[in-house]
Amino acid sequence: MAETLTAADKEAIKDELVRELNRKIESIGLQLARIGPTLTAANGQIYQDSMNKSMQELRDQMQYVQTAQFRSFDPQEPIADGALVKARFEPSGLPATETWTLLVPGLSQRRLVYKGREIDVGAGTFGYGGSLLGLRAGESSHVYGDGRSIPDYNVEVLEVL
Questions:
Q1: What is the pLDDT of residues 27-69, one digit of tens each?
Q2: Residues 49, 50, 53, 55: is their CA dihedral positive or negative?
Q3: Quick check: 104 and 83 in contact, CB under 8 A?
Q4: Which residues pair with 85 in a beta bridge?
Q5: Which of 1, 8, 9, 76 is the most exposed place for a label (fewest CB within 10 A)?
Q6: In whole angstroms, what is the distance from residue 83 CA to residue 107 CA?
Q7: Looking at residue 5, what DSSP letter applies?
Q8: d(CA 124, CA 80)
């Protein structure tokens, strides 16, 4: 069974996120070293440039995360960047799910496992994370989807750390 999360867990989640970003950088580097030499000169340069850009973006994200400070939130304080939030999402016509999300600006959306729980980590400016900004523990909101791939959904904030 998964352990309960507390505000103190944010630093450990941050550390795990840095390790995950570093693993991704190393993986891309290994892929570049393995595949790059098999490509033609022109394709090899395009591939190398693309992989180097991806690794630099991940390094930038890792540097940002390493220096970020995640303060504790009062349960009745509006959700903002740095909050660790447990919320129930109920997309129209689908079963509800409870999700932990750590809102980190400047970070592309990713998921990691910590204390037996999946934690969505990323910017609160898009997706489900964006629908949490400004809400408080115990509040709910209806969010309209895009009419194509993202359905309308209800979100209820269960905890804010």
A1: 999 999 999 889 888 888 999 999 999 999 999 989 988 888 8
A2: negative
A3: no
A4: 101, 160
A5: 1
A6: 14
A7: P
A8: 8
